Amino acid sequence: MALNESQKQYLVDIHSAVEKRLSSRRFFHVKGVVDTAQKFAKRYGVDEFSAIAAAYLHDWDKEHSNEELIELVKEYKLGDFSESELKEYYPLLHAWTGAFSALKEFPELPTSVFVAISKHTTAAKDMSNLDKIIYCADMLEPSRGVKSLDKIAAKSKKLTLDELYFTCFKHSMKYLLKHDKQIYPPSIDIWNELIRERNADCKQKR
Ligand SMILES: [Fe+2]
Ligand SMILES: [Fe+2]
């Protein structure tokens, strides 16, 4: 659905707030995610306003220090993590805290926007189409300049949203294995669930 005038104005306000909050390098990435998410929203029939708003806000807390993020995890009561778990999860925390921090700033936005922000690093078993769009747009926006991701972006037109999401999630698992990085334990369950769904789909098609 095309944007109405009040949505356009609201997005201009979000744009300014994000530009003020983040470094120019990060803001450049965010703009790439916005453009990519808008393109995917049009292609896959997802609400454009929510996709653009979530894309603008997905890294709202990304430039906090690890100490600030841990404080926010405690303030928002985001789970009972040990200190060592929190250290392992540093790269993930900004998604979980960012959803709550952005909600404080933009409470008028639909809840689905904050859910998509919270899932943009780890994904989840229950991904809505909006969640999938933000997850994929964050990975495929052009300024990342990663050849393997550019290849996925180039062939994305031929893929359904589920196929695109599967391809992106698989890419992130392969990256972690290739670089000897830890896998967030729930991601293994997400992977297994995706494989189960694909196998069930194949059986149905046979
Ligand atoms: Fe992020
Ligand atoms: Fe990002």
Describe this structure in words.
- The chain has 206 residues and is mainly α.
- The chain has a single domain, classed as Hypothetical protein af1432, CATH 1.10.3210.
- Helices cover 72% and strands 0% of the residues.
- The chain is built from eleven helices and no strands.
- The protein has helices at 5-21, 24-44, 48-57, 66-75, 83-88, 90-105, 111-118, 129-140, 147-155, 161-178, 185-205.
- Helix 3 (48-57) crosses helix 8.
- The longest helix has 21 residues, at 24-44.
- The radius of gyration is 17 Å and the shape is globular.
- The termini are far apart.
- The model has no long low-confidence stretch (mean pLDDT 94).
- The structure holds fe (ii) ion (FE2) (2 copies).
- One fe (ii) ion binds next to helix 6.
Notable traits:
mainly alpha, single chain, 206 residues, 72% helix, binds fe (ii) ion, 11 helices, Hypothetical protein af1432
List the helices and strands and how they pair.
Layout: H1 5-21, H2 24-44, H3 48-57, H4 66-75, H5 83-88, H6 90-105, H7 111-118, H8 129-140, H9 147-155, H10 161-178, H11 185-205
One fe (ii) ion is lined by residues 29, 33, 58-59, 138.
